[in-house]
Design goal:
The structure holds 2 protein chains of 2 kinds. Chain A is an alpha+beta fold. Chain A is 21% helix and 24% strand. Chain A is built from 5 helices and 13 strands. In chain A, the strands form 6 sheets. Chain A has a 3-stranded antiparallel β-sheet, with no helix packed on it. In chain A, strands 1-4 form a two-stranded antiparallel sheet. The termini of chain A are far apart. By secondary structure, chain B is mainly α. Chain B has a domain of 262 residues. Classes of the chains: A alpha+beta, B mainly alpha. At the A-B interface, helix 1 of A face helix 3 of B.
């Protein structure tokens, strides 16, 4: 019978296709004597049993979260992808400069960025950053494609709604220039003048075409 | 009814004085049948009621325990919502199964489809009846107990085979065939292991085997033979129970649910309950034969220690031993990966069976030479 000697498993670097790649090298199963096989079998089974019994007697290893009850103290995970967010700098300037690389990177057109060109500064100004959560697969391609790290996935996972049209919304609450223009202006009052308020659901709603109740400005997209 | 009250008096006296009088319920019923038939019927009714209670309580307890223990083995919590720490979850599930629609596939063999779960639970009930839980309460105590246990255990596989065949489903049939091959193979090893204790105790009757362990359990007294036989029996009975690491008949990742894919509602509950009660029966038989059943732990010479051990009621001893073995089976299930079918067959025919035969020969030599500890006073 063949057994893999676990002690001989090691990490190494190997050149694959002209690149140094980190690999794990596992030896071939060795032919062992019957006694060794039986001994190794029972030893490895006992090792596994030791690990599981240590979980049983240590309640601290439990990872289950009692969600509705511990809503206040719920611990989420950094890598969890719940809702797409725009990133802002310390001054409050939006990092996104409307380059639309994320829009091209999106595999199913879940992102649409509407922008206008400011005739004075000859710069793009963001109008709407529309995210279709209903068709998004949370593949993270947009976040990886973004050259200025201006979008990220947050932890706010309670995103259930009663109307699926509410899943298509505008991420930015203010339309206007990006952080480069914004942060160059010292006076906060002057900065605010550049921005227009943008509400969440007034953009194009590309579903059934009817306007949302209580939101007459919703138009077909 | 005077007989009953006098029995009750004697029974209570026996409990306080720790004097055991092992008479099974079936024997009591047979004794009084000639002159007091109503009392005999009463005894039988009592036996059936106790069986039903046992079945339900043990089934529910084991299912809850398994789910909780499995949860913590896997860093989860298990049921937490219904009742305190999910205590009422099993009752909720049972109610759900009771009112669930009972679906029989259109092209199934209807008669066999209905018969299969009944056979499975019948085998379980018959095996449960012979378990000597306490000295004063055993339902039936036949003089060929060990043979009875293995024979009745084989009816269960019939239920599985019929269930798989009658469902008219590929997964079910594959699961049933696997179950058949597996249980028939492993029964050989399990019986060989039981045979060693039969050799040592010199009897097939379970109550006699328990009494033969008054001075020490067979697992200690028979040198290495008992320990090897115990582990052989443990492995073989895990395989017979279709539990992980031998759960190929169910193999949910390959066969949906194996032989009970097409079962729902109460019929599925029968299979499920039979599986859990079988686990109890296998643990109880292992405890009875190898760990002394309800006999307390005794060390020859230490009288004070022995007296303390004897003060613990035999029912508690039995429950602790059986419970420990059940826990061991659960521990196996939630730790080990599933075997491949050829590995399963290889383990039985190439390893367990030769070990069982050598062990049997070794035990026979030990007995011929009288080389085991603390021989029973004749």
């Amino acid at each position: 019978m063949g057994l893999v000697n676990l002690r001989k498993i090691r990490r190494a670097k190997q050149e694959i296709g002209g690149r140094e790649v980190a690999v794990v090298i596992s030896p071939r199963p060795e032919q062992t004597r019957l006694g060794t096989t039986v001994w190794q079998t029972f030893k490895s089974l006992l090792t596994g049993m030791k690990i599981t019994i240590s979980y049983l007697f240590r309640p601290s290893t439990v990872v289950t979260q009692q969600y509705p009850e511990n809503r206040e103290t719920l611990q989420m995970f950094d890598r969890y992808r719940a809702q797409l967010k725009l990133v802002y700098d310390e001054a409050g300037g939006r990092l996104c400069n409307c380059c639309q690389i994320c829009e091209n990177a999106c595999p199913n057109q879940s992102i649409k960025i509407e922008w206008t060109k400011n005739p004075d500064t000859k710069k793009k100004e963001l109008e709407r950053w529309i995210w279709r959560m209903d068709s998004c697969t949370f593949c993270n391609a947009c976040v990886q494609a973004c050259p200025s790290n201006s979008i990220t996935f947050g932890n706010e996972f309670e995103s259930a709604v009663y109307d699926r049209r509410l899943l298509v919304y505008t991420l930015n609450d203010k339309a206007g220039p990006d952080a480069k223009v914004w942060s160059a202006i010292e006076d906060p009052a002057e900065r605010e003048k550049l921005m227009r308020k943008m509400d969440r659901y007034s953009g194009p709603i590309p579903l059934s075409g009817t306007s949302l109740p209580g939101n007459p400005s919703g138009k077909e997209g | 009814m005077t007989a009953f009250s006098s029995f009750l008096f004697n029974y209570l006296n026996g409990v306080t004085a720790n004097v055991y009088e092992p008479v099974s319920v079936a024997t009591r019923a047979a004794e009084v049948w000639a002159h007091e038939p109503w009392l005999a019927i009463g005894w039988l009714a009592l036996g059936m009621a106790v069986m039903l209670g046992f079945l339900v309580v043990i089934g529910m307890g084991l299912i809850y325990g398994e789910r909780k223990i499995a949860g913590h083995f896997q860093c989860r919590l298990g049921p937490m919502r219904v009742g305190w720490h999910g205590l009422l979850q099993v009752i909720a599930d049972t109610l759900k199964l009771l009112v669930k629609e009972d679906v029989v596939p259109a092209k199934a063999d209807k008669v066999l489809h209905v018969l299969a779960p009944v056979l499975a639970i019948m085998a379980t009930l018959l095996a449960l009846a012979i378990v000597p839980a306490t000295p004063w309460f055993q339902l039936i105590d036949v003089n060929i107990g060990v043979i009875y246990v293995t024979a009745v255990g084989s009816i269960g596989v019939l239920g599985v085979l019929i269930g798989g065949w009658s469902s008219n489903n590929k997964w079910s049939l594959l699961g049933a065939m696997r179950a058949g091959a597996q249980i028939i193979s492993y029964e050989v090893s399990a019986t060989l292991a039981l045979l060693i204790i039969v050799l040592f105790a010199g009897s097939l009757q379970l109550s006699t085997i328990v009494e033969s362990q008054a001075d020490g359990w067979w697992i200690w007294r028979s040198h290495l033979a008992g320990i090897v036989a115990f582990f052989t029996f443990l492995i073989a009975s895990t395989a017979e129970l279709n539990r992980t690491p031998f759960d190929l008949p169910e193999g949910e990742s390959e066969l949906t649910a194996g032989f009970h894919t097409e079962y729902s509602g109460m019929r599925f509950a029968f299979f499920f309950l039979a599986e859990f009660i079988n686990m109890f029966v296998a643990s109880a038989i292992a405890a009875t034969l190898f760990l002394g059943g309800w006999m307390p732990f005794q060390i020859a010479g230490l009288d004070g220690f022995n007296a303390v051990m004897q003060a613990i009621p035999p029912g508690v001893w039995f429950a602790v031993k059986t419970g420990g073995l059940i826990f061991l089976l659960m521990w196996f299930r939630w730790t080990f990966p599933r075997l491949r079918i050829d590995q399963l067959m290889g383990l039985e025919w190439k390893f367990l069976l030769p070990v069982g035969f050598v062990n049997l020969l070794f035990a026979a030599v030990l007995i011929l030479m009288g080389w085991y500890f603390a021989p029973i006073p004749a």
